[in-house]
TrEMBL record:
UniProt cross-references to SUPFAM superfamilies, sorted A to Z: S-adenosyl-L-methionine-dependent methyltransferases
Signal sequence region: none
Matches recorded under Pfam families: Methyltransf_11
Name of the molecule in the record: Methyltransferase-like protein 7B
GO MF annotation terms: S-adenosylmethionine-dependent methyltransferase activity
Coiled coil: none
Claim: Methyltransferase is one of the keywords in the record: yes
Assigned keywords, A-Z: Methyltransferase, Transferase
Keyword Phosphoprotein: no
Residue ranges occupied by any Methyltransferase type domain in the UniProt entry: 14-65
Length: 138
């Protein structure tokens, strides 16, 4: 909030704390931008989150997202992720290694979805090496 005066064109109205799958405290078509980081991997219903984000965004509104994603279909890494999913989810509060947020966001019916995939080369990041960041426009 200390930088508020630097950006007078940006207004902050309130904070809403609710599950992303059901943002009933947020009106339809009322938000300019939604930002999420590592949400789709750990929410209960990624498709419901995408639909809710689309619902609350104003026409032309932007959804900025960053998440890790599963290995491509057929890759041995995806089988390894699925093997570790039960334990990983238990340890890391419901996080799943093999979700595909870019596909799920596309299926929500945004007018445009653009994303970039990044792959970490670090051995220690093997299970989380596939990342996606993007912008979906309502």
């Amino acid at each position: 909030m200390k930088n508020r005066n630097k950006y007078p064109q940006v207004s902050y109205r309130r904070t809403v704390i609710q599950p992303a799958e059901c943002m009933k405290g947020v009106d339809d078509n009322s938000v300019d931008v939604v930002v999420s980081t590592f949400l789709h991997c750990s929410c209960d219903d990624s498709a419901a989150v995408s639909r809710e984000v689309k619902r609350v965004l104003k026409p032309g509104g932007k959804y900025l997202f960053l998440d890790h994603t599963g290995f491509p279909e057929g890759d041995i890494g995806l089988h390894i992720q699925r093997f570790f999913n039960p334990l990983w989810s238990l340890i890391f509060d419901g996080c799943y290694l093999d979700r595909n947020p870019s596909r799920i966001i596309k299926e929500a019916g945004f007018s445009d979805v653009q994303f970039e995939k990044h792959i970490s080369r670090s051995f220690w990041m093997y299970l989380l090496r596939h990342m996606v960041m993007g912008i979906a426009t309502k």
